[in-house]
Amino acid sequence: MRNILWILMVATVLISGCNNDDDVNQAEQDLLGTWTSKEISAEMSIDGKSIIQWFADESGLPESEIEKIIQDLLDENASGLSGTLEFKPDNTYSADFFGSPKETGTWQLANNSETLILTSSDNSSTEMDVVSLSATMLILGFEEMDSNDLNGDGTDENLLLKIKWTLEK
């Protein structure tokens, strides 16, 4: 009886281990190909306040005017957000976005396919969360934190930028 239990436990471990490998392999297969940027959404906060609220507090301008200024800036830079990202079977990628030189490098899925790591040909790396991945849709997310004295008061403000990027094949 003890041998049967031991065999069942070993078989369970082996089967569950194979399922993870299958999931990773499927994720890598889904990632391969050329993806087109469809939407980028960004959320920025400064010291825990929305960027609109922070600038309105600092400038004394109404939030509606700050929203218009930000929207105008986004509209001016929207063309730089369109383009393609191609993942190849040899774990290389190429990114071609309007307004930017073509970028090449290597890609890797890590953390059980929950993280995409892009290492460009100049050896700079970008890590993004894989929010969702299917054969036709890829949603990536990342956060960046920085501190700068934005208002000249001698104290650094904490900036948090959250980006969600949707691509389609």
Nutshell version of this structure?
The chain is α+β, with helices and mostly antiparallel strands and 169 residues long.
Question: Can you tell me about this structure?
Answer:
By secondary structure, the protein is α+β, with helices and mostly antiparallel strands. The chain has one domain: Lipocalin (Beta Barrel). Helices cover 32% and strands 44% of the residues. A hairpin with an 8-residue loop joins strand 8 (137-148) and strand 9. Helix 2 (51-59) packs across helix 3.
How does the SSE layout of this entry go?
Blueprint: H1 2-31, E1 33-46, E2 49-50, H2 51-59, H3 63-77, E3 83-87, E4 92-97, E5 103-110, E6 115-120, E7 125-133, E8 137-148, E9 157-168
Antiparallel strand pairs: 1-2, 1-3, 1-9, 3-4, 4-5, 5-6, 6-7, 7-8, 8-9
How many runs of DSSP E, i.e. beta strands?
9
Q: Report the mean per-residue pLDDT as an integer.
A: 84
Helix content: 25-40%
Principal-axis shape equals elongated
Q: How is the main sheet built?
A: 8 strands, antiparallel, barrel
CATH class assignment:
Mainly Beta
The total of helices stands at 3
Radius of gyration: 22 Å
For this structure, the quaternary state is: single chain
What is the structural class? alpha+beta
Distance between the termini: 53 Å
- Tally the structural domains: 1
What is CATH's topology name? Lipocalin
- Uncertain runs: 1-20
Strand content range: 35-45%
* Level-2 CATH architecture: Beta Barrel
